[in-house]
């Protein structure tokens, strides 16, 4: 694990990154869970009380975070060109000799954490945590999205056609706003997982591409949203026009302009 700022302990940076990364994943899942809850009928067995919702959120926020922290806080890190791990790495691969002239990095050892009781390294522990969260999140979110659209296609639903259209529009924007950043941030993490688990090196151009994709995830998300969602595009144009003192172009219905940001109440109502 390289690229840590000089003068800052690597474990602190890894721990902060673990908390933020899992927080973003859990909050994303929470958005879909709440949207699914809104679409359910009042007597559905899938509906949950406020207490169950809070327990569900805490479990998904805390469990993977603790898993990540166990890996990052136990990471045996060494810094500087005189570290034993770096000298061993250079002996194994002479193309990394330039690292001996660098001071602003930390390098993680692959030694087992607590042999013979725990024969895995801290890097492996963090890699398995990331992999588990990705697999779990993709499966659960996919099932929730599928059931949301199944509820909207139900002919016996009490929701009006207009309300269904508003919910579909909101789900489409939510999918775009979540899928693009997760994909653009997830690909670099998958690359790191491959390097950690299989112990292979990527070409420099591929590493640069992964890092660049991760850095541009917000720009790519905004571009796709503006290109694929006319309502969101009109909303942003209205905001920009208002910023420069020009009155935004109004739709025939004020509700149509706001529905992309604040979905209308369904006949079931919000709880």
TrEMBL record:
Chain ranges passing through the membrane: 12-35, 124-152, 173-200
Highest taxon listed in the record's lineage: Eukaryota
InterPro entries: 7TM_GPCR_serpentine_rcpt_Srh, Nematode_rcpt-like_serp_H
Keyword annotations: Membrane, Transmembrane, Transmembrane helix
UniProt keyword Transmembrane helix present: yes
Transmembrane among keywords: yes
Name by which UniProt lists this protein: G protein-coupled receptor
Organism of origin: Mesorhabditis spiculigera
């Amino acid at each position: 694990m390289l690229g840590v700022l000089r003068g800052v302990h690597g474990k602190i940076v890894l721990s902060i990154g673990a908390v933020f990364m899992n927080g973003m994943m859990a909050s994303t899942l929470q958005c879909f869970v709440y949207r699914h809850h809104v679409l359910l009928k009042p007597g559905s067995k899938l509906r949950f009380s406020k207490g169950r919702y809070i327990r569900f959120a805490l479990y998904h926020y805390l469990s993977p975070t603790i898993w990540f922290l166990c890996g990052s806080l136990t990471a045996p890190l060494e810094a500087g060109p005189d570290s034993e791990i770096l000298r061993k790495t250079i002996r194994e691969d002479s193309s990394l000799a330039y690292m001996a002239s660098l001071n602003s990095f930390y390098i993680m050892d692959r030694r087992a954490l607590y042999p013979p009781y725990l024969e895995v390294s801290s890097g492996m522990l963090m890699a398995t945590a990331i992999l588990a969260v990705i697999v779990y999140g993709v499966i659960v979110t996919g099932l929730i999205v599928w059931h949301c659209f199944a509820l909207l296609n139900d002919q016996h639903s009490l929701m009006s056609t207009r309300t269904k259209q508003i919910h579909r529009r909101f789900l489409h924007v939510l999918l775009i706003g979540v899928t693009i950043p997760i994909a653009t941030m997830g690909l670099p993490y998958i690359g790191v997982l491959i390097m950690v688990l299989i112990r292979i090196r990527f070409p420099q151009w591929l590493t640069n591409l992964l890092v660049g994709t991760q850095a541009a995830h917000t720009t790519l998300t905004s571009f796709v949203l503006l290109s694929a969602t006319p309502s969101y595009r009109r909303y942003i144009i209205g905001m920009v026009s208002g910023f420069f003192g020009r009155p935004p172009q109004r739709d025939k219905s004020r509700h149509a302009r706001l529905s992309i940001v604040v979905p209308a109440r369904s006949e079931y109502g919000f709880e």
